[in-house]
Amino acid sequence: MRDVVRIMLAPLLWLAAFSAVYGLQGLLCGHDVTGSIAGLPLPRVILIAAYGLAIALQCGVLAWLCRTRAAVGSRFVGFVSRATGWTGLVATIWSLFPVALLSICG
Amino acid sequence: MNALERHRRLSAIWASEPGFRGWFSTVNHNDLGRMFLVTAFFFFLVGGLLAMLIRAQLATPHSAFAGPEIYNQIFTMHGVVMMFLFAIPTFEGLAIYLLPKILGTRDLAFPRLTAYGYWCYAFGGTMLLVSMLFGIAPDSGWFMYPPLSDAIHSPGINTDFWLIGITFVEISAIAAAVEITVSILKYRAPGMSLDKMPIFGWYALITALMILTGFPPLILGSVLLEVERAFGLPFFQADMGGDSLLWQHLFWLFGHPEVYIIFLPAAGVISTVLPVMCRTTLLGYGWIVAAAVALAFLSFGLWVHHMFTTGIPHMGLAFFSAASTLVAVPTGVQIFAWIGTMWRGRPELHLPMLHILGFFVTFVIGGLTGVMVAVVPFDWQAHDTAFITAHLHYVLFGGFVFPIFAGIYYWLPHFTGRRRFFRLGEIAFALVFVGFHVTFLAMHWVGLLGQRRRISTYTPEDGWTAINLISSVGSFILAFGIAMILLDVLLHALSAGRGRRNPWKAPSLEWAMMTPAPAYNFASLPHVTSRAPLENDPGLPLHLATGGGYLGTPRDGRRETLTVDIASGRPEMLVVYPANTRLPIVMAAITGLFFLSLLLKFYWTVPLALVGVAALAWRWVWGLGMQEDPVPQPIGCGLEVPHAAAVERGPGWWGSAFLLTANATFFGSLLFGFAFLWTVAPGWPPPEWLTPSWGALILGLVGVAAGSLGMRLAMRQNRRGAAPSMGLALALAGTLALAYGCASLMLRAPAPTEHAYGATLLVLGGYGLFHAALAALMVVFTAAQVRRGFTSRTRRSVFSITCLWTDYAGFTGSIVLLAAHLSGLSP
Ligand code: HEM
Ligand SMILES: [Cu+2]
């Protein structure tokens, strides 16, 4: 089971981060959050912070997968889990990129 | 013992009852896989017939063939039958028939569950067919959007048939998914580590996991909508705190993954068949596995692309548009791996290969139009036009029907043990290919000219007449082709001559047995050392038939197989399967009674049916008990393993764990629904919030703790050899206290028919109550087993299962209680 979880870890994290940021955006709009920090609107800052956190987490997972690859049972599982680890990272960067650019509500 | 003698003795042990009576009591995957496939193809014909009616109606303007009411039923039932009664069950049937053979074992993990799933499917499908015969079939489109499908706008029973019938059928999908997951992870030939697993196993595993997490949102949606229709709880009514968009979220949270649930098994067939047709091995095994996993996960982040036109904020649209374009990458990886495989090998144009080429052409076009509609501005133009129906058929027909035809022709000699002698199949393929492309290329075009989907008629001035006629002619060519394939298969099964074993010279284990397959599959189980066992050792079939593998000696009339450690494939325990029984069909019938009572609003039979199901379930698991401690069992080749009843985590534990995964997704979707309504739905805040009751909350939470502690105490007592009565009593008291807490929440929920808030609390409380009651029942069951002497320090698996369920009930129950009471504090 450990091996199976290892393979699924990074995409699962992506799914969680993707849903969380989408939910966060919904909350920010639903509650009409306003204000600003250092000239930037507050909702934007919050969203970008979440985006950065998600990327950092993915990098952490990927680093962990690469570092511990010697410990897994087979080279195959090591390879597949690193491939899905990269998938998680790329998917996070690509699919949440809109937080940096687009209008937040409406 | 010689091979023939062994065959006779094993057949006697594994055979189902002779004649048609055997259909009702068989639990063997050979029989049930065939029954699934035949039934699914029956539904394919029904769906195809409905498609012909659609095309007949649209062939000419001002068609008087069917009125709008009937036409609505026809296209709805076409979509429903194809998606729920053909595509998913075909995967289930194929997996049920093939997996044990490919994985080198004798049956799936839970044979009676296979049978139960089949009968739920058969009965649920029959319900939908009956509705069609009476002209009261569902008619709001296959995705049943409210408000169109709510009680105000669709007052008849039509919609209820969909909601209740499909939920009934879904039970079989969940059952099959649990079964397939556990079988692939645990029921493989010794030595078959994860990297030696045939690629079809990976695809089936990923698909099954997707069913476990993709179907629960739909089941939740159906439950909520049916509850709204029957009892007026306004989950989807905007003026009472509901939101019809909630349905769209729940539906597409299922609906998009569903597309991949359909495509991935087909891709598994291609990855299996293609290398054999090209006389080589699959290129990039690891890449393909990674791509399939990536595809599975990404597909859960796309659902909103079906809702681009519902007024969602731009940023939300952009998230899902980006994610939608992303799936092209893993799909591309697979396609390139296949092209590379063809490049490296020497493709031979046998019939399966033709269908695979048909797949390539069609699916690639479907993928391209898919990327087009993933781009928001284009989708705004094409939404709800025939362009979309054309796109979805390129993906579904190209990505599923062609590969399945390839698979059928590939495994046909395995099913029947015969060889083809006509060339009918080649002509049929040509007709299907041409017919399909004529029909649906034309529909792209007419869609761009503005023809909306789901319209029953149009006028000559629209300028769509010629194209529609061409499309309809194409569809009749297609139908003719499919009929010829059917004829070809029938002729083959009835009259072709005996073929030789392994006609394709395939490398995988399913060809290492005689064909048609005997009920026990392998006379002895192989030890696998590579991904192509049959290629490396051509003498393997003989070796196995003469009992050279594991479990080569039939003993005590028991149906035996082995399970292995998930990663390494080391033999782990010996499993003894239950024999033929009518329990599954009876239980499916009582389950059907439950659904039928809801449908016909005979509410007094609902509790009866529930008690019936509970009683049968009790009997089901009771029979697994043993009075004496089993000793370690010799399995041949000088090895000994423990009996499955003498381990901490037996098959039942694994089954429960994956069933609870599905259940947790259901619960998560329910929480999502609550949060969604609260933040997005217009009619909030509700007129009245819950008045928190500290007594009920604290009692419930204490009950949660007591339940979990009690079960752990019981396990400890049992391990020490003491009677676990203290622990079980504590666990029972705890689960009952939790049940009380949830019941009191249901009673105190503010007027559930007035506002979605109260309605949601009622459902949350009901969920908690149901699981607490279930956990209590399981604790009582455990106590009964202890009293009858079915447990001991060795026979302890029932404790870990009950513990799992009490923990789950406690976990979800405390979230229910906390969420409800916190919401009460919010104002
Ligand atoms: C056998 C050949 C088939 C033909 C000729 C055909 C034809 C059609 C047509 C013309 C429509 C549009 C109805 C309308 O918009 O008024 C339609 C809808 C649909 N078809 Fe098919 N189809 C075929 C096979 C399939 C298959 C194999 C699947 C799925 C596995 C499928 C799934 C659907 C779905 C989901 C819809 C949408 C229904 C709705 O709008 O509610 N079809 N089909
Ligand atoms: Cu989709």
From TrEMBL, chain A:
The keyword Membrane applies. Keywords: Membrane, Transmembrane, Transmembrane helix. The chain crosses the membrane at residues 47-65, 86-104. It comes from the Bacteria. This is Uncharacterized protein.
Automatic annotation (TrEMBL), chain B:
It is found in: Cell membrane. One of its GO terms (molecular function) is cytochrome-c oxidase activity. The chain crosses the membrane at residues 35-54, 74-98, 118-137, 161-187, 199-225, 259-278, 285-305, 317-339, 351-378, 390-412, 424-446, 466-491, 574-596, 602-622, 657-681, 693-714, 726-747, 767-786, 798-822. One of its GO terms (biological process) is respiratory electron transport chain. It catalyses: 4 Fe(II)-[cytochrome c] + O2 + 8 H(+)(in) = 4 Fe(III)-[cytochrome c] + 2 H2O + 4 H(+)(out). The keyword Ribosomal protein does not apply. GO terms for cellular component: plasma membrane. NCBIfam families: CtaD_CoxA. Belongs to the heme-copper respiratory oxidase family. This is cytochrome-c oxidase. The lineage of its organism: Bacteria, Pseudomonadati, Pseudomonadota, Alphaproteobacteria, Rhodobacterales. The gene is ctaD.
